[in-house]
Every structure is written in structure tokens, then in C-alpha cells.
Amino acid sequence: PPASPWMGGLWEAAVKSFKNHLAKITFHRSLTFEEMSTFLARVEAVLNSRPLYPATNDPENDVDFLSPGHFLIGAPLLAAPEVDLAGTPENHLSRWQLVTRASQEFWSRWSREYLNTLIQRKKWNTPRPPLKIGQLVFIAKENTKPLDWP
Questions:
Q1: How many Å apart are CA 101 and CA 97, to the nearest integer?
Q2: What is 20-88 written as a DSSP string?
Q3: Radius of gyration of the chain (CA)
Q4: In a domain, 145, yes or no
Q5: Contact, 55 vs 34, CB < 8 A?
Q6: What sign does the CA torsion over 120, 106, 17, 67 have?
Q7: Alpha carbons 122 and 10: distance in angstroms, whole number
Q8: What is the pTM of this model?
Q9: Residue 51 placed within a domain
Q10: Domain limits at 35?
Q11: N or C terminus: fewer CB in 10 A for the chain?
Q12: Which GO terms label this protein's molecular function in UniProt (predicted)?
């Protein structure tokens, strides 16, 4: 049956990835209900901003992509710029900054993992054509902000 849990391998893998990163990030933190709700809303925005498919077949003129956010609100999800809190000790952070840092950690971990899943892995002895001008590619940057895909 199509609605059975074992039939949705792709989205079940995404749920597993989410739970794994959520557990790693929140394990040593004690968040209140409101802080956890805020954190989960920010994580939801990260997950719904992921690229699914190029928006057009013309990557030379349009480098936009479709994301789940397009289907939810009809436009890409955006986030306000924030200060990077990765180097600040947690005992120096306010509660809001703690939630912000947790969401930045989630973005950092999850985006690295998600970009690795987009790489097509083929056997090393299969010849691959070189990249062509106008082909859509991701260029990974170290310090990208949440919802800002490279």
C-alpha cells in the first residue's frame, strides 16, 4: 500500500536525518517549551528551504530552484541575517542567542549532509563528461547562513 511506512524510503530517510541531528544538538541543552518551539520552527524553515529541483531548464539565466517552501507559501523561504555565534562559549549566551546558536548548528550539520546526498555517486571507472558552461552546480561555502544555499 502506498501509505505504508516502508513505502516512503525517501522521506523516511529525511525524518531519520532530522531526528539524528536534533538529538545531537539538543542532547546537552535544556530548552524551555517556548525555546524548543522556536528552535523547531527555525529547523522547519531550514528543512523546507532545501533545493529539490532547478526552477527552469535554463541555468545560464536563472539559477533559482524549487524547494518545499515554494509549495507551502509560493515563494522561497528567507531569514534575517544574524550574528554567527559558533565561536562564543555557551555560558556567555542569552537564552535567545542559545536558540539561535542551536539553529545555526543544525543548519551547519544538516546542510553539509544534505549537499553530500546530492552528489551522484558512480563507480570510479565509469567515464563522466566534464562540466559544461551553463550547467547548474552547487558551490559549497564554509560559512553560509541558514536558508542561504550555496
A1: 6
A2: HHHHHHHTT----HHHHHHHHHHHHHHHTTS--EESSS-TTT---EE-HHHHHHSS----------TTS
A3: 18
A4: no
A5: no
A6: negative
A7: 19
A8: 0.69
A9: yes
A10: 8-118
A11: N
A12: nucleic acid binding
Q: What are the grid coordinates assigned to 11, written together?
A: 522521506
- The answer to whether the CB of 110 falls within 8 A of the CB of 149 is no
Asked if residue 36 belongs to a domain, the reply is yes
Please say if the pLDDT value at position 18 is more than 80.
Answer: yes
The 10s digit of each residue's pLDDT in 121-141 is 555 566 777 888 877 776 777
Distance CA 135, CA 144 (A): 22
Q: Is residue 96 part of a domain?
A: yes
Amino acid sitting at position 142:
E
